[in-house]
């Protein structure tokens, strides 16, 4: 992973007074649920404005610290089009989950663990059959990605976790902040559906039918982040995405 002397910051220079004033304005948007397919649930508008701001602040604190944001890549010099922060265990596209990269990987904050567990609990009421049930999961690994307007993530499967986790269908929980993303998913690499993931959404996929889906980020939609979030957090233009799993 490429790291520079100057840490990558999620935050733009801001006026502290302006930031405080906007942080007090809470957007109350009705949360809804979309069952995209068996084992794949989208919780729309799940996070309040204050929760989204808190996520940005926590990721900023971790990201500028030791083991913070960097640009992952391959030995041949190719780079992923994003900035990445690993939590709980180091990962990169070349070595997968390795023991480390010369630095200590931050642990998952309790706030994030609690948020993931609560979202999983809330999703259970929308699962109609026993066959579609999602196994319980308390995350011990996480990846935080920041995409600029030109950022992308190629089509892939999340199959680098332990055999036990994958075999039981332990879900992946994805949290979106900032700009919206065109997200692709499906059983076949060349036959994919598309959904737009917006700031405050939580996407969950797992179980027998959806844990191993192909998925990726087709495009980031510029200037689509909620204005209130940008003013309250001073998040730079782009998409902040957090994904959590159990290794």
UniProtKB/TrEMBL annotation:
<dbReference type="GO" id="GO:0035515">
    <property type="term" value="F:oxidative RNA demethylase activity"/>
</dbReference>
<keyword id="KW-0408">Iron</keyword>
<keyword id="KW-0479">Metal-binding</keyword>
<dbReference type="InterPro" id="IPR027450">
    <property type="entry name" value="AlkB-like"/>
</dbReference>
<keyword id="KW-0560">Oxidoreductase</keyword>
<dbReference type="InterPro" id="IPR037151">
    <property type="entry name" value="AlkB-like_sf"/>
</dbReference>
<protein>
    <submittedName>
        <fullName>Oxoglutarate/iron-dependent dioxygenase</fullName>
    </submittedName>
</protein>
<feature type="binding site">
    <location>
        <position position="215"/>
    </location>
    <ligand>
        <name>Fe cation</name>
    </ligand>
</feature>
<dbReference type="GO" id="GO:0005737">
    <property type="term" value="C:cytoplasm"/>
</dbReference>
<keyword id="KW-0223">Dioxygenase</keyword>
<feature type="binding site">
    <location>
        <position position="158"/>
    </location>
    <ligand>
        <name>Fe cation</name>
    </ligand>
</feature>
<dbReference type="GO" id="GO:0035516">
    <property type="term" value="F:broad specificity oxidative DNA demethylase activity"/>
</dbReference>
<dbReference type="GO" id="GO:0008198">
    <property type="term" value="F:ferrous iron binding"/>
</dbReference>
<dbReference type="InterPro" id="IPR004574">
    <property type="entry name" value="Alkb"/>
</dbReference>
<dbReference type="GO" id="GO:0035513">
    <property type="term" value="P:oxidative RNA demethylation"/>
</dbReference>
<feature type="binding site">
    <location>
        <position position="156"/>
    </location>
    <ligand>
        <name>Fe cation</name>
    </ligand>
</feature>
<dbReference type="Pfam" id="PF13532">
    <property type="entry name" value="2OG-FeII_Oxy_2"/>
</dbReference>
<comment type="similarity">
    <text>Belongs to the alkB family.</text>
</comment>
<dbReference type="InterPro" id="IPR005123">
    <property type="entry name" value="Oxoglu/Fe-dep_dioxygenase_dom"/>
</dbReference>
<feature type="domain" description="Fe2OG dioxygenase">
    <location>
        <begin position="135"/>
        <end position="247"/>
    </location>
</feature>
